[in-house]
Amino acid sequence: MKTLQIIQIIAQISAAVALFITLGINYRQLRTMAEQVAAMRRSTDAQQILSLLSFIESDEVRAARTVVYTTLHRKHFSEWSESELQAASRMCASFATAGAIIRSGIVPVNPLLEGLEPSLRRCFQILEPFLREMQKPENGGPQYWIGFDWLHSQLDRPKAVGRSRSREGNRK
Question: What is the pTM of this model?
Fold first, then answer.
């Protein structure tokens, strides 16, 4: 072989080795970036969950929930006072808002339902007749506070596995 051919072979082998090293480095960088994206997604989920829980646990909503638990469960909604109707409306609207946010996929459903389940079940049990009245066509219509209905319906669904799969399932 000539010297020129040997130099070309060495150059090609060197280029091939450099290419494989570069591909290996790029692969490791992609894996690291994927891990960083997953960590950011978990962090964002946590922040969004805390924000929604903060909304649900605000002073006004807690006061309304207290009225629902201590007073409204004892009488029919047609006998509720104006302040009791406002408390019931605040609870329905709060759960409807939470349901709409969760259903949109912004916040994962399972962690929130674990914390809200007892309150959600109890409030829905007490407020359902009022909710149905408000959903009559002559009042707010069938879409009125529909997020509350949807959120309550999620309590009896099997827990979804995986973040993106559960979000896709929540949009149905």
Answer: 0.66
